[in-house]
Amino acid sequence: MVSAAAPIKVGVLGARGKVGRAICEAVTAAADLELVAEVDQGDDLATFVSTGTQVVVDFTHPDVVMGNLQFLVENGIHAVVGTTGFDDDRLAQVQSWLDANPSVGVLIAPNFAIGAILMMRFAVQA
Questions:
Q1: Residues 8-29: what's their mean pLDDT?
Q2: In what order do the strands lie in the sheet with 78-81?
Q3: The domain over range 8-125 is classified in CATH as 3.40.50.720
Q4: Would you list the domain boundaries of the chain?
Q5: Distance linking the first and last C-alpha atoms of the chain
Q6: Distance CA 124, CA 126 (A)
Q7: Stretch 56-81: mean pLDDT, rounded?
Q8: What are 19-68's pLDDT values in tens digits?
Q9: Which neighbouring-strand residues pair with 13?
């Protein structure tokens, strides 16, 4: 008998925004994901550590995304970033954090729509 894998523990940054709320709903609806943290402006990023978050979806703002990513990478938490504002310098900085933490992965996909995410998810399930 094959046992089901434990769900991936997901946190959302920007959870009170329109897209953030939609991401929270999508994660909650997925059988293989568990929403363990909803964080927004003014909330403590340490929530992700205390809840055992494995992956964070960041839909925040270009002014704060770099600090968010540095915290996540340095704490061993993978990230999927939908926030815009990445230029070559920012990408190089993220790469340097990843070089120092090779077990962590970051996917930067600015301007992706929740519909695209859901379509990819449905394609995997099909």
A1: 93
A2: 33-39, 8-13, 55-58, 78-81, 106-108
A3: yes
A4: 8-125
A5: 23
A6: 6
A7: 96
A8: 899 999 999 999 999 999 999 999 999 999 999 999 999 999 999 999 99
A9: 39, 58
Cα–Cα distance between 22 and 15 in angstroms, integer?
9
DSSP secondary structure of the chain: -PPPPPPEEEEEETTTSHHHHHHHHHHHH-TTEEEEEEE-TTS-THHHHHTT--EEEE---HHHHHHHHHHHHHTT-EEEE------HHHHHHHHHHHHHSTT--EEE-TT--HHHHHHHHHHHH-
On the question of pLDDT at 126 being above 50, the answer is: no
Helix 18-29 and helix 114-125, axial crossing angle in degrees, nearest 10: 10
